[in-house]
Amino acid sequence: MGKGRVNMKKRTARAITAVLMAVLFCTSIFMCSCGDKSKTMTLYTWEGMFPQEVLDDFEESTGIKINYVSFDFNETMLAKLESAKGGTYDLIIADDYIIETVIKEGLAQKLDKSKLKNYENINPIYQSQFYDPDNEYTVPYGAGVQTIVYNPDKVSIDITGYADLWDKSLVNSVGIIANYRVINGMALKVLGESYNTKDLDKIAAAGEKLKELAPNIRIIKDDNLQDDLISGEISAAVMYTSQVTMAMLADPSLKVVYPKEGIGIGIMAGFIPSKAPNAEAAHLFLDYILDAERGAQCFEYLGYYCTYSASDAYISDEFKPFLTLPAEFEKEDTEMIQNVSAEAEEKHSDVWVVFKSLCE
What we know:
There is one protein chain. By secondary structure, the chain is of the alpha/beta class. It has helices at 2-38, 52-62, 74-83, 96-104, 180-190, 200-213, 225-231, 241-250, 279-289, 292-302, 320-323, 342-359; strands at 40-45, 65-70, 91-95, 138-145, 147-150, 174-176, 217-220, 236-239, 255-257, 263-271, 334-336. It contains twelve helices and eleven strands. Strands 1, 2, 3, 4, 10 and 11 form a six-stranded mixed sheet that branches. A five-stranded mixed sheet has the order 7-6-8-5-9. β1, α2 (52-62) and β2 form a beta-alpha-beta unit.
């Protein structure tokens, strides 16, 4: 019986040891998992938003690996974020209008500005906008305006605004981006209306105005429209700011026009999802790119307006005319394209379909 008691103690000791080892093993896995998690930041945005050296330097200086995941459309991002219930991603950079929806759905968390020592570097003109009026959720990262660029050697008129694109001398020679709210909005501005009118009759009138423009349209596309202007395939274009930058760097003789009817502006911004696995790393990265010199490096690569006033001084002379606000750019003359009612959005879509069919 005594021997039996000894064997029982041994078996009990072995069992306790096994349990302790298992607990320690599981704990180590958990700690490693958490450690690995804290050393990774999932960045979700479009392709080509940052110079690779900036991403590499962040990883090297912080030890945090960037998991760069790209999307094609804002709506794709929203659908995936909704599916993840605000999780999966640590930092997202997207367009203003979609961020408004993200915030309304509770899918973004408020920034901890105590972790953003460079927050004051932001240019206030890009803050307090419709999608984040109290600047609680977002850090702007690049802005663009609806800009006309034309080749004065191929155009016989002096283009000063959108209305000039309807001139008969430009038949089959104009290129436009494929953003229907921008192009429909262009017609609205010619008619003296807001980009964001909810009046269905006014949107329909803009559609009728666009029909008159159709003979002048040669190309409708979003990607690399600047190449068609540089090659001479088209003589005038309505382009994204990054495309304007590339066009002007390639051919400084081109002319840039800020339409007299008013300037439409769009802002890209970064936000941290409500259940981001590594919000700490997201704050670190936001503060990292908010650095004045590093911000200039990013915007020279991106080709959009620099949204950090502290970075303006570091923009090189070659890029300064395209990345910093021109003297004629006044806040009161600008209007942001915003979300409109479902009925107005549907009307815009109908107008665009008819216009595109006429252009084809």
